[in-house]
Amino acid sequence: MQGPRLYHVYSTFWQNDYNITAADKRHLYHVDNSLWTPKKPDLTVHAGTDNKAPIHAVCKYSHFSRHAKFGLGDPSQPNQVTWEDLTCQSWTHVRYRWRMPLRNHPASEHHAFVWKRTSSVGVTNSSPSIWAYDNYKLVDEQSEQVIAVFTSSSHKSVDKDGKLEIYVDYGQEFDVLVLITVIALIEKHRRAKQSSASSGGGGGGGGGGGVPSRLPGCDEGRPVCTNCSKRHTECEYESSSSLRWTNEESRPRQTSTISTPEGSQPDPTLTVANSLGIVGRLGKHDVPVLSGSLNLADLELMMQWCNSTYQVLARNESTGHVWKCLVPEEAVSHPFLMHGILSLSALDLARTQDDHRRPMYSGLAVAHQNQALALFRELLGDINDTNAKAIFSFASVVVLYTFAFPHEPNLSNPFVCIDDLLQIIVLIRGVQQVINTASLSLRESNFKALARTEDYEPVLSNDARLALEELLEANNTCGAQNETHDTEVYEDTIEKLTEAIGLLNVDHTMTIIGRWAIKLRPRYVDMVRDHAPLALVILTYYCVILDSMRHRWSHGDWSVKVSRAIWMVLDDTWRPLVRWPMTALFGQSFSNET
């Protein structure tokens, strides 16, 4: 059985044909692209270097439709081609389904596959660029195993469209059909861009004979889950999740037993337990001492959870059911989770009370959270199937608690709230590996809705794209002027920021807030801690992401107060770089008095 096969896909400049080579650059196929010849297939795969070589496969686009037909063989030979359908399954997401009989598969009947656009998995463990549209993964419809991945190179090369990697060995015919179906998607998108540009729509979509527009991008690879890489499956929790954490704050008092995923950026100072320090420091004042048993006050808090508080964690109806019903059931067997959800409910109640009763509920929140943390720390080295659901749930609750806890304003020192947000980012990163490990057990349980993710397509507005390009240009300028400037770290951070801002238009959940924090390099976190100007500029853009959750009581006015603080500490050299986020947050009329 063969291992993974790598193919390179190139486009010709004038005819918009395609050439396909093997990993060693041997020429394998030429794809003839026909735009105007009646009754001729739109795409014809020739087993050679030009259109005179034997025909192996063809594809026809359906008129006035998003569907297509394809098949193996030469259509000039009667009854030689068995046509299959490439069916568009969604108007809002890239999902194209096709089938074929597999000769080297236990199931001999037609097997179904689906092409989906991806922003989180690339060939040979690379990371697809946010600047490129045509990044796809092919999944087995039944098992959802990733069968193949196409990573676009159009953002950095004029003639190379990208690379295709196929992970299964279903025979040469299967490889040919994978090639022609993915090229069908690439060509369909290219024609749509050309049509939009020629009709005056689409905003700078191409021209020049339909050559796709090229935007600069970054090749920096994203950390890859080792287990998923070995199985050739996409790590579902890596793309978006409730919240995952690692820690950079302080020296370890104990060492986590969980290994760092291959390819990640480990920080030698990270431990899970120490990252929880910020939570223990919240509310360091006189608080009620709780007994180990629950009481009427706790009953009120549980009623608040089931009636209201759970909604702040729910992404949709299915996750709402888990948080409302199943999490409290799990908490009965795991006291740390029970204390955790009661602490968040207490904060929820405190915000609605008058000045006389508010301190009582705030005190209950701190007391429950302190007990929860004490019990939780004991389990960090022993995550298993019996406690995974509770640990996963508590991990999300404790981050929401930290966002929601009222932080006293310090008007005389704007760096205080900046540092407070940094500590929350540290917390989000702090137990990343814990929640990763716990999520593995959720996928086959009644909590699986919490681990299920959607692979959305980032959509950037023109003004956001221009602002981010300006940010990249400023980074390069700083690097050219100062050899100690961490150009690569900043570029990687801006690329991840670009993806997160693009997802705001399609994903309206709080997962984006944690996703960016999780993917940061430790060096960038250090630069924010040192109040480096460009690092603070980037953090202002993150405030736009935070602002998407301002309607939720748990996130309050973090976006407003942190962006104002950064504006105050930046000098006139750096302020022009935050015009876009400040305008997005405060409107066109924002000023120095913001």
Structure, briefly:
The chain has 20 helices and twelve strands. The chain has 594 residues and is of the alpha+beta class.
Tell me the total number of β-strands. Answer: 12
- Class from helix and strand fractions: alpha+beta
Low-confidence stretches: 199-266
| Strand proportion | 5-15%
Total number of domains = 3
Task: Describe the oligomeric state of these chains in a short phrase.
Answer: single chain
Rg is 26 Å
Report the end-to-end length measured between terminal Cα atoms: 64 Å
As a percent range, the share of helical residues equals: 40-55%
Q: Enumerate how many helices there are, as a single number.
A: 20
- Specify the overall morphology: globular
Q: What's the rounded overall pLDDT mean?
A: 80
What strand order characterises the main sheet? 1-2-3-4-5-6-7-8-9-10-11-12
Please give the largest β-sheet.
Answer: 12 strands, antiparallel, barrel
Keywords: DNA-binding, Nucleus, Transcription, Transcription regulation
Pfam family, one: Fungal_trans_2
Protein name: Zn(2)-C6 fungal-type domain-containing protein
GO molecular function: DNA binding; DNA-binding transcription activator activity, RNA polymerase II-specific; zinc ion binding
Strand-helix topology:
Elements: E1 5-11, E2 18-22, E3 27-33, E4 43-46, E5 55-61, E6 68-72, E7 82-88, E8 95-101, E9 110-117, E10 136-140, E11 146-152, E12 160-166, H1 172-198, H2 226-231, H3 236-239, H4 272-275, H5 277-281, H6 296-307, H7 317-333, H8 335-350, H9 358-377, H10 388-404, H11 415-430, H12 432-442, H13 448-451, H14 462-481, H15 487-503, H16 511-519, H17 522-529, H18 533-547, H19 558-569, H20 579-586
Antiparallel strand pairs: 1-2, 1-12, 2-3, 3-4, 4-5, 5-6, 6-7, 7-8, 8-9, 9-10, 10-11, 11-12
